[in-house]
Amino acid sequence: MATSPVEVLFLGSGDAFGSGGRFQACISVRTPSDRFLLDCGASSLIPMKRARIDPREVSKILVSHLHGDHFGGIPFFVLDAQLVTKRTAPLTVIGPPGLRERVTAAMEVLFPGSASARRIFDLRLVELAPRAAAAIDGIVVTAFPVINASGATPYALRVETAGRVIAYSGDTEWTPALVEAARGADLFICEAYFFEKKSKGHLDYSTFLSRRGEFSCGRIVLTHMSEDMLARSDEIEEVPAVDGLRVSL
After folding, report:
1. I need a surface site. Which of 15, 72, 172, 186 has the fewest CB within 10 A?
2. Are 25 and 48 a contacting pair, CB within 8 Å?
3. Where are the alpha helices (DSSP H) in 99-138?
């Protein structure tokens, strides 16, 4: 039987606070020739190693925005690459403007001296311009500015890889940019933080549902759910993410 060209694995589908006992945002995308991550929350190495994924297989980390539950795992990932797995292949980290400064600062706070230490592999930090498709290491990424106060421009990401398109909202209030990012995508991964409650910087499920008809995409998976949302999961029409969920495209 032929295998799917792209497999999406939700290593972490939770929010910043571990609601439902879930790991923070970390989504693995595997193609026949590559593996990369969408976000890398502080807890990301744990589910990755539980899933027996060798971090050396990860060529790239795409960061939606600069909150710790979405990029805070990068210092741990880099130190693991240097000291544990002895990585030699380059690692590319791709994200919004301010990525380089924030990753460097986080590394220095968590592991003083680690940002300037001589590495056995090349760490490449790439900052995306808005709405400009960028071909990077075999994928094409387009970043759409969204609404979330993270100290730098937050993005929804549209990724083209192995003939498939994956769109990812990151964290954001409702914005038409989500419709743009998801247009024609095979999979749209969208946050739904609360069921009805409005929260600055986040999308609630009732608002998503009221806008559902605007999305012209394939499958939709909802992620980054709070305890409020999880308690009403039986009312959700779309597929709710759980840690370990696999989606084949």
Report:
1. 186
2. no
3. 99-110
Tell me which long-range contacts 191-194 makes (C-beta under 8 A, separation of at least 24): 191/222, 191/223, 191/224, 191/225, 192/222, 192/223, 192/224, 192/225, 192/229, 192/236, 193/15, 193/224, 193/225, 193/226, 193/229, 194/226, 194/228, 194/229
DSSP string, 181-244: HHTT-SEEEEE---SS--BTTB--HHHHHHTGGG---SEEEEE---HHHHTTGGG-SSEEP-TT
pLDDT tens digit string along 23-56? 999 999 999 999 999 999 999 999 999 999 999 9
| Threshold 0.70, pTM exceeds | yes
Helix, coil or strand: residue 12: strand
CATH class of 7-234: alpha beta
Which residues share a beta bridge with 92? 60, 124
